[in-house]
Write a structure and sequence with these properties.
The structure holds two protein chains of two kinds. By secondary structure, chain A is of the alpha+beta class. Chain A has helices spanning 2-7, 15-48, 66-95, 201-210, 220-230, 269-277, 300-311; strands spanning 102-109, 112-116, 122-124, 126-130, 135-141, 146-150, 155-159, 165-169, 175-181, 194-199, 256-258, 264-266. In chain A, helix 5 crosses helix 7. Helices cover 65% and strands 1% of the residues of chain B. The chains are: A alpha+beta, B mainly alpha. The interface between A and B is large, with 82 and 93 residues.
């Protein structure tokens, strides 16, 4: 029975998740107990007291029974109180942020999640965390309500525009776990997914230094394309030559550009790198100096990827 | 019948008083400007059944779309409009008016021994306001529909395209029809009870209606205000809920659920009220714990106003608020439990006949118990955090709203069908339809508890492959459910072809509506009935008229 019941829940990825599951099983068996009692009498009485042919319809006249009515008022009340206390305790335990928690910022927007790590690096799609380390997510939304839901951790929190909300968990199982958006947010609500990747400490240090493990399977152009899409380059720099807030990447490689300060230069490796890290230094003539710096939020491998990607846009 | 004294003047009445209400003028005008509560009830019944049909077909479309991940029959934007419309129609056009405005309108004055409701013209106004509100929602569908979900959460609802303002104004107008019905019933119950009918001699259906009416009158204005604020923000950019305008989106949820949680009891209390009639009648036994059932209706109505925050455990409200609302939520479960136990105890040593209404009452007991017990999971804070906004919640409220209210509505429809139309339906077909609905319902929704506990969020157009088998089973269940309703449609319409042959009291009922003919005469009773016994007192009617 317990095994069947466990299969109705996702794998528990933290100690708190296990505690909540224990409570869940208790509520299940308690409900089952009451259901069996009520269902038994609901089915048994109509069969037992069914009017048989030829029988008179004279029935018992029982208007009430003090003891019975007290029984089914007081016992459920006491049990409810137990449920309340147990539910409250496990809730507070799961939502109290440990002092040594590591902060990761989460930004929700239609229809993806963006994660910013303590070292300023950002990423989307996958949330990488170290094993056994308490995590605190500091979350806000850019547009409408979303909800950050990690079934394996048994935690969920609505992400509200205009304020910060928090979620904490301490993963104790390594592996990949599903993340959903659980608050309806429009057309692609069901596509607003991400994956929680729990890694042991050495793997995590490697991730911080070299970037996500999947970079190993990718060539620089793919890494650059990934950054282009996930970090917002696409909102200003088009790929088809059309004019945006910034110059299009199409055909820009190797071109000699006039800058706002009157100088000119060739778009090459050094220019792209400088534009990413110090975007105000040399702004192409006719564009506003509005690009934010990516100093500290892109790894060298990612800047190299961007260079390769722009190079491929001939 | 033995528990009523009719004055001896009975035989002196002239013939035209004996015309039943259905035959008393059959021009279109006779119906459209009628102030007869029975005719208004029948018109309401026709409209809520149409709304149920529309909402039901939309539900079938939702289930069909979810047969496979990704696109099955419609795109994501259409899907979002379809599930929004399913919810909005079912809540505002069907379930809220279903029992009070349709069945209640018909039965309540009869049960009280009254000629009509206290304010017959207000009653007709309530119906026309309902029609206007429904038309506004219909217009909104034609003008592009709504994709906000029936909850209209901000800031999505203030920023999305579509006819949100018109829809919310439709709901605003519908609220007045609900308030009018509630006011009318309160006045009727206070002032028009038959001589000898004290508060504790009222049928329990009346207690349920009274509690419902109080909530309708007190809670509906809050929804109206909230929707006006929403419309103001959408139309004029007045910042109330949108943080970019300085508003607070969580405030909307507080306002919305301050109405919509009590509204859940506007939906279920009338269902419970019907069950309290059907079970004693078909057990041919007095109700067990009359006062317990009556007071628990009132208790539910009161506590229902202070539990709204359990819809918001993950919304970002404070942990203290979560704790308080969790505690209060458990309180509201107790009176519902008392009712269930009392209903079951009423069958003990009864003389039970398993006619269609009783089959629905038994289905209700089983399904509502599951709906209530799964509420324990959701009232428990830490478990709710996991289950919130998943299919578990969808399954839970369908067990309460459909397994509870809709099943009770169907029970009431079968119970009073002979009274309303003077005709019996095919009992065997009714039993088959009831069985199909019971099985189909459980197939459709029990699977959704498992989907939810495994983490499947609600309002998802697409889903992970691991959820497909359960979704498919659920969809097949919806077909069984649909077949049951299809059969019901058939035998209920078929009953109109027969003559009006229903006896005044086909079931052996003990309340006043069974003392008049089926269908009742226009003025309900020849003479004012005087109550001699409490309801459900079967000691003096040992032989019912049923076989």
């Amino acid at each position: 029975m317990n095994e069947i019941l466990r299969a109705t829940l996702p794998l528990a990825g933290s100690e708190h998740a296990k505690d909540i599951d224990t409570f869940y099983f208790f509520v299940f068996y308690l409900s089952l107990f009451f259901f069996v009692i009520i269902a038994w009498f609901t089915v048994y009485f109509p069969l037992k007291y069914r009017l048989k042919p030829g029988e008179t319809r004279k029935s018992a006249h029982i208007t009430d029974h003090f003891f019975l009515e007290m029984l089914w008022t007081v016992v459920p009340s006491l049990l409810s109180f137990v449920l309340f206390i147990w539910g409250f305790n496990t809730y507070v335990a799961a939502f109290t942020v440990p002092n040594d928690a590591m902060d990761i910022h989460v930004k929700g927007r239609k229809w993806n999640w963006e994660f910013e790590y303590p070292d300023g690096m950002k990423g989307g799609g996958k949330l990488y965390v170290p094993l056994n380390k308490p995590i605190r997510l500091i979350m806000d939304s850019e547009d409408v309500l979303h909800a950050f839901y990690i079934p394996a951790m048994r935690v969920k929190q609505d992400v509200v525009p205009g304020r910060f909300v928090y979620l904490t968990f301490t993963p104790n199982v390594a592996g990949e776990f599903q993340i959903f958006c659980a608050e309806y947010c429009g057309k692609d609500h069901s596509g607003m997914l991400a994956t929680l990747v729990v890694m042991d400490d050495s793997q995590y240090q490697k991730f911080l230094a070299e970037g996500p493990p999947e970079y190993k399977q990718m060539n620089p152009i793919e890494i650059g394309q990934n950054i282009y899409k996930s970090r917002g380059c696409q909102s200003c720099h088009s790929l088809d030559g059309s004019r945006g807030e910034g110059p299009s990447f199409k055909g820009i490689w190797g071109k000699t550009e006039q800058f706002n300060d009157g100088t000119s230069g060739v778009v090459d490796e050094n220019y792209v790198k400088q534009s990413v890290l110090e975007p105000q230094a040399k702004v192409v003539k006719g564009f506003e100096p509005i690009m934010p710096t990516f100093q500290g939020s892109l790894r060298p491998i990612e800047i190299d990827g961007l260079i390769a990607y722009i190079k491929s846009m001939k | 019948m033995a528990d009523v004294i009719t004055t001896p003047a009975h035989s002196t009445h002239t013939e035209h008083h004996d015309v039943d209400y259905l035959s008393d003028g059959n021009g279109i005008k006779d119906w459209l400007i009628t102030v007869d509560h029975k005719r208004i009830g029948i018109m309401y019944l026709a409209f809520v059944c149409l709304a149920f049909l529309a909402g039901g077909l939309l539900a079938m479309a939702v289930r069909l779309e979810l047969l496979t991940p990704g696109r099955t029959i419609m795109d994501a934007e259409t899907y979002n409009r379809v599930f929004t419309l399913h919810g909005a129609i079912m809540v505002f056009l069907f379930i809220i008016p279903s029992i009070p405005a349709a069945l209640g309108n018909f039965v309540l004055p009869l049960m009280l021994g009254a000629k009509d409701v206290a304010f017959p013209k207000l009653n007709l106004a309530s119906f026309y306001i309902y029609v206007v509100g429904a038309s506004m929602m219909l217009a909104a569908i034609i003008m592009g529909g709504v994709d906000t979900g029936w909850t209209f959460y901000t800031p999505y609802s203030t920023t999305t395209v579509g006819a949100v303002t018109l829809t919310t104004m439709g709901v605003f107008v519908l609220g007045f029809s609900s308030i009018f019905t509630g006011m009318n019933f309160i006045a009727t119950i206070h002032k028009l009870r038959a001589p000898g009918m004290g508060w504790f001699e009222m049928p329990l259906f009346i207690w349920g209606m009274y509690s419902t009416s109080v909530i309708q009158v007190l809670a509906t204005p809050v929804l109206a205000i909230t929707l006006v604020l929403l419309a103001l923000e959408r139309a004029f950019g007045i910042g109330i809920f949108d943080p970019r305008l300085g508003g607070d989106p969580v405030l909307f949820q507080h306002f919305f659920w301050f109405y919509s949680h009590p509204a859940v009891y506007i939906m279920i209390l009338p269902g419970m009220a019907i069950i309290s009639e059907i079970i004693p009648t078909f057990s041919h036994r007095t109700i067990f714990g009359y006062r317990g059932i009556a007071f628990s209706s009132v208790a539910i109505a009161m506590v229902s106003f202070i539990v709204w925050g359990h819809h918001m455990f993950t919304s970002g409200q404070s942990q203290l608020a979560n704790a308080v609302f969790s505690f209060l939520t458990f309180l509201v479960g107790i009176p519902s439990g008392i009712k269930v136990f009392n209903w079951v105890a009423t069958m003990y040593k009864g003389r039970i006949t398993l006619k269609a209404p009783m089959l629905y009452a038994i289905s209700f007991l089983l399904l509502f118990t599951i709906g209530g017990l799964t509420g324990l999971f959701l009232g428990s804070l830490s478990i709710d955090i996991h289950l919130h906004d998943t299919y578990f919640v969808v399954a839970h409220f369908h067990y309460v709203m459909m397994g509870g209210t809709v099943i009770a509505f169907l029970g009431g429809l079968h119970y009073w069908w002979p009274k309303m139309f003077g005709r019996m339906y095919n009992e065997k077909a009714a039993a088959i339809a009831c069985a199909l609905i019971f099985v189909g319902f459980n197939m459709t929704f029990f699977t959704q508890f498992v989907l939810g506990s495994r983490g499947m969020p609600r309002r998802y157009y697409n889903y992970l492959d691991q959820f497909q088998p359960l979704h498919q089973f659920s969809t097949v269940g919806s077909w069984v459910l649909g077949l049951g309703f299809f059969i019901m449609l058939g035998y209920l319409f078929a009953s109109f072809r027969g003559p009006k042959n229903a006896p005044a009291d086909p079931w052996g009922g003990s309340t006043l509506e069974w003392q008049t003919s089926s269908p009742p005469i226009t003025h309900n009773f020849h003479d004012v009935p005087v109550l001699q016994h409490a309801p459900y007192d079967y000691r003096n009617i040992p032989q019912g008229t049923a076989n």
